[in-house]
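User: Please predict structures.

Assistant: First:
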Amino acid sequence: MNRLETPFGPVSLRERDGVLIALDWHAGDGPATPLVAEGLRQLAAYFAGDPRGFDLPLDWGQGLHAAVRRAMAAIPFGETRSYGDIARAIGAPAQAVGQACGANPLPLIIPCHRVLGRNRLGGFSAPGGVETKVALLRHEGAAGLLI
């Protein structure tokens, strides 16, 4: 089945043409493909505290979105970066980075929750929004939380 129960409710994954294209904050329909099953297994390991990250074929998108997603994916478990940090790293405006973070179709796997504003947490797409973002960062033992 295409679903993993998490502390934030069920999640499911979608794939197309051999790459993961989306994480949904609800149970998916139908059986899990081998790639989706592996993605759910790696998500379960993440929630069990495994800091190794994800090793899955992903749809990175194109252009700025791809650059931002790859920069987010490079943030280690338990660490954070600011929108400005990513903007400087890829040579884009911080506001555009924030918009690209908000458009991330694979939260958790591409860890947009690890990206913070300079003096604020920023948003998050999961049920519970920013509270879920804080809970994920605490789960990872991220230092320097604003609250």
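Second:
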Amino acid sequence: MKEKENDIANRISYVQNTLAAISGKWKLPILMSMYAGKNRFRDIQRNIPNITTRVLSKELKDLEANKLIIRIVHDSYPVSIEYKLTTYSFTLTPVVDEMIKWGRQHSKGGL
């Protein structure tokens, strides 16, 4: 019985870890925008209705801390900054695809 309880506790811990990395109103939309090729701050912001500059900046820092994106500063005048998805971020693709399927089904009233 103790072994099963540990398994459940571990599974819950893993889900919480995943949610900590991608939860919230904005992180997945930001990643989805970047999957679509939007890599500059303003392009990402234009692609996501109602996200503020402050919130986008904070969320990009969080995504970078979780190794889902990298920030690249180009030494030009004026300085230009772009964000790139990491290889690691693409491991979320099946998760996002399943969320899209579930959300589509849920919007139609469930099963």
